[in-house]
Specification:
By secondary structure, this protein is an alpha+beta fold. It has two helices and six strands. Strand 5 and strand 6 form a beta hairpin.
């Protein structure tokens, strides 16, 4: 079953992420109101948290960073991103399991 925070789109897969900047470590925490909650080590200033999120997702999902794009929420904790390329929803779910 596909989780509520992940959706197949015509172009790829969209992710609904609730991000918490300023954490001790970057990791998946769990669910927050139906969104996948991720704590980010970077502060929410000068786009640092967004840059870290993209780099971290790229590493976790094993896709180039240019294949991950913001749909909305660059200035919010609620972020929608789209991942495209040769990756399945199952691979994303596996890669983004809470630690």
């Amino acid at each position: 079953m596909t989780p509520i925070w992940l959706k197949q789109t015509p172009n790829g897969i969209s992710l609904n992420l609730h991000c918490q900047p300023g954490a001790k470590i970057t990791k998946v925490v769990g669910l927050h109101a139906g969104w996948l909650k991720i704590s980010l080590q970077a502060p929410a200033i000068e786009n640092k948290a967004n840059e870290l999120l993209l780099a971290w997702l790229s590493k976790q999902l094993k896709v180039p960073q240019k294949q991950i794009q913001f749909i909305s929420g660059q200035n919010s904790r609620q972020k929608r991103l789209e991942v495209w390329g040769p990756i399945s929803p199952e691979q994303i779910i596996q890669a983004l399991k809470p630690q």
